[in-house]
UniProtKB/TrEMBL annotation:
PROSITE patterns: OKR_DC_1 (PS00703)
Keywords of the record: Decarboxylase, Lyase, Pyridoxal phosphate
Species annotation: Vibrio aestuarianus
Annotated PANTHER family: BIODEGRADATIVE ARGININE DECARBOXYLASE (PTHR45229:SF3), CONSTITUTIVE ORNITHINE DECARBOXYLASE (PTHR45229)
EC number, UniProt record: 4.1.1.19
Protein name: Arginine decarboxylase
Classification lineage: Bacteria, Pseudomonadati, Pseudomonadota, Gammaproteobacteria, Vibrionales
Length: 769
């Protein structure tokens, strides 16, 4: 027999009663007898003797399956509510439908219980009248019912099927993981993941689970459930990431020579969709501010007049007979957290395009918090009364900022003009899906939906926003404190003052009531009159800043985009922070960005604040690099061995002042190079090997064979088939400056996908001349 670490999870009950500390009372003794009875029946019992203890358990322990709660807790309570009422409210938010047995001394006490409490309680228990055997039996039955309905459709079917322990004579060959246990290396792998992963990894012959390709059985139920939760007419499970989701939508929506409208701030999968279909793009060009923060496409760029002009003047579309766009795609929110007003976007783009695709890969949580109202695709009731409303697609990377495994993604559809029926759409879906899906990815998608359903989604997103707001305010206070002393510190990128729309009171951001910032959308909208955001020609109520995407600015650049006399390059902080296991999601010359996802634990940001303070202290002291960045010194001793942290920062800042690669990059993204052919035609030349590697200083006039994308965030500054300008190419200028930076600061090299560094020079694959 092969020993495994598999152990079915016991039922778990939380008992909340201060009587457990007063066993000399009849009530306390009876509660203890009940705890013993539950334990005897193989139930794990956790206890709390106060409101504070109970609240901590409810918030931190999601493995509770039932609660026994004393109505007689004598803590102070709050806002006129008894402690038990406060705990019931928290349970309703965090443990939806969990069975709660309310314990009282006798039936007379029911007279003190109001209707709201009654709706949140499964049963009432009279501790001095009922027997422990009876109460334990009722509790276990309620717990079993709760556990049976806890999992959403597909996850429940998968868990049930895994218990069959079938004897399989089909794929996969590891046979529930047994093959791995036959050699030491395989056994190590098996033990690392545990048996359940392998038991649930099975072939598509198992009809009990339904079909991912045909959308039947539990898979179909899972997708119907997701559509309900996310507000879609239809939803599709995708196991190939949102790259696969985007390509699926594009292949279903367009054919060769169709005109499509593409956000230039797009993921590379959008260009891949153009390669697959042969569609001809015109581009929406997003703005960027002085810090390189990616802003919105101006509303004026989405007007019928602007789009018509693009189509009439683009070399790819001007000679087409049919110039009506069939599809448009917009990335929302942007990588830096700017979220479009989706109502206005649909009203504008819908005049030109019958289908609008909102790539919300980093934004799947927006529907579940009122602060994002109107700023996401799948809005309740949207387009229902308008026969001319566009069909809207939304793609979500559930693995990015929801709770799902990597590669998990959703396609959500709201049918409108030129809708694509399921049978047609599914042909494209099957092209980009696999006949051998990893069912744990599908199950994690299902779980992500269930976690966001009801009050759970609101609670999770509100908690994340609260943490982000607390961090922003803490950094803001530290910045103001240092600034008042003529000193420097990191500055949060958000509005400097906010107004309570109810009272009219104005507050500095860092002093505003937390409740206002957590709940009021107007605190996050970009006002065209404000200077802090750095974006010009904004339409009112066009975008809002996502509270959970937090950018901090280092000193060195004015609000007008001019470099100051001194500065602190953000690259240096990122290198410093990485030594402490802190990895920002993005770094530019003077910006560092952090994501506050639903997985961020309370107070985690305090460690980040400490790291900011520690960096400042070491920077001001000019601490030796041998002390603060020893790995950097060990890999480049001659370059960095005698430098301090501030020495290196000064060298970096002088480079930025002299060469200004950030401005070159902004210019590269603000201009559209001349397209010589479609991305599809360029890719075909690559397949035929009609390409060659060309160094940056010889790129003028050459046609890129693949997209060129600086990372992060991986947005193309050149698309396949576009020509580098012969006289003034900011794309060439940027790569030349990047090569100089990499040579001068080894260990701080940049990544540019689509370019290859040869002997310190960036090279790009181009069509042969």
């Amino acid at each position: 027999m092969i020993a495994t670490n598999y152990n079915p999870v016991k039922s778990k009950v939380l008992v909340i009663d201060e009587g457990l500390e007063k066993l000399d009372s009849a009530f306390g003794r009876n509660t203890k007898i009940l705890v013993d009875e539950l334990t005897k029946r193989d139930v794990y019992v956790s206890t709390a003797v106060s409101e504070e203890e109970a609240l901590a358990a409810i918030v931190s322990d999601a493995s509770i399956h039932g609660v026994l709660l004393s109505w007689e807790l004598t803590d102070a309570g709050k806002d006129g509510k008894r402690p038990a009422e406060i705990l019931l409210d928290e349970l309703a938010q965090r443990h939806r439908n969990i069975p709660v047995f309310l314990m009282a001394k006798n039936s007379e006490q029911v007279k003190t219980i109001n209707e709201d409490v009654m709706t949140k309680v499964e049963e009432f228990v009279w501790m001095l009248e009922d027997t422990a055997d009876f109460i334990a039996g009722r509790m276990i039955a309620a717990v079993d019912r709760y556990r049976a309905q806890l999992l959403p459709p597909f996850a429940a079917a998968l868990a049930k099927y895994s218990k069959l322990r079938e004897q399989s004579w089909s794929a996969p060959g590891h046979q529930g993981g047994i093959a791995f246990t036959k050699l030491p290396v395989g056994r190590a792998f098996f033990d690392f993941y545990g048996e359940n992963l392998f038991r649930t990894d099975m072939g598509i012959e198992r009809g009990q689970l339904g079909s991912l390709l045909d959308h039947t059985g539990p898979v179909a139920e899972s997708e119907k459930y997701a559509a309900k939760v996310f507000g879609a007419d239809r939803s599709y499970n995708v196991t190939g990431g949102t790259s696969g989701s985007n390509r699926t939508i594009m292949q279903a929506s367009m054919v060769e020579d169709d005109v499509v409208i593409c956000d230039r701030n797009c993921h590379k999968s959008i260009e891949q969709g153009l390669m697959l279909t042969g569609a001809r793009p015109v581009y929406l060009v997003p703005t960027r501010n002085q810090y390189g923060i990616i802003g919105p496409v101006p509303a004026s760029d989405m007007s019928v007049e602007s789009i018509t002009n693009k189509i009439e003047t683009s070399p790819l579309t001007k000679d087409l007979e049919n110039k009506d766009p069939v599809y448009s795609v917009l990335t929302s929110c942007t990588y830096d957290g700017l979220c479009y007003n989706a109502v206005d976007v649909e009203n504008l783009l819908g005049q030109s395009s019958p289908r609008i695709h909102m790539d919300e890969a980093w934004y799947g949580y927006a529907r579940f918090n009122p602060i994002y109202k109107d700023h996401f695709a799948m809005r309740d009731g949207a387009g229902k009364d308008d026969p001319n409303a566009p069909t809207v697609f939304a793609t979500h990377s559930t693995h990015k900022l929801l709770a799902a495994l990597s590669q998990a993604s959703y396609i959500h559809v709201r049918d409108g003009r030129d809708a694509i029926p399921h049978d047609r759409f599914n042909q494209s879906y099957m092209m980009h899906a696999t006949t051998s899906p990893l069912y744990s990815i599908v199950a994690s998608n299902d779980i992500a939906s269930a976690m966001m359903d009801g009050e759970g989604g609101t609670m999770l997103t509100t908690d994340a926003i609260k943490e982000a707001v607390s961090f922003r305010q803490a950094v803001g206070k530290a910045f103001k404190s240092h600034e008042s002393n003529g000193d420097w510190f990191f500055k949060p990128w958000n509005a400097e003052t906010v107004v309570d729309p109810v009272t009219g009171d104005s507050y500095p951001f860092e002093e505003a009531p937390s409740e206002l910032l957590v709940s009021e959308q107007s605190c996050w909208r970009l006002d065209p009159k404000d200077k802090w955001h750095g974006f010009k020609d904004l339409q009112d109520n066009w975008v809002m800043l996502d509270p959970i995407k937090v950018s901090l600015l280092t000193p060195g650049m004015s609000e007008d985009g001019e470099l100051l006399e001194t500065g602190v390059p953000a690259e240096l902080f990122t290198a410093y922070a990485s030594r402490f296991g802190i990895v920002p999601t993005r770094t530019t010359d003077f910006q560092v960005m952090f994501l506050f996802s639903i997985g961020v634990t309370k107070g985690k940001w305090v460690t980040l604040i400490n790291t900011l303070l520690s960096f400042k202290r070491h920077y001001d002291e000019n601490a030796p690099l041998t002390q603060v960045l020893p790995e950097l010194v060990s890999s480049n001793p001659e370059r960095y061995g005698n430098l301090g942290l501030k020495d290196l920062g000064n060298e970096m800042f002088e480079f930025l002042k002299k060469h200004d690669p950030g401005q070159a990059l902004n210019d590269a993204y603000s201009t559209i190079p001349q397209p010589e052919m479609t991305p599809r035609a360029a890719f075909q030349q690559l397949v035929k090997d009609n390409i060659e590697l060309v160094p940056a200083d010889k790129l003028a006039g050459r046609v890129a064979a693949n997209a060129v994308m600086p990372y992060p965030p991986g947005i193309p500054m050149m698309m396949s088939g576009e020509k580098f300008d012969e006289s003034n190419s900011p794309q060439i200028e940027y790569m030349l400056k990047l090569g100089l930076w990499d040579e001068m600061f080894p260990g701080f090299e940049h990544e540019v996908e689509g370019a290859e560094v040869v002997d310190g020079v960036y090279n790009v694959l181009c069509l042969k001349a």
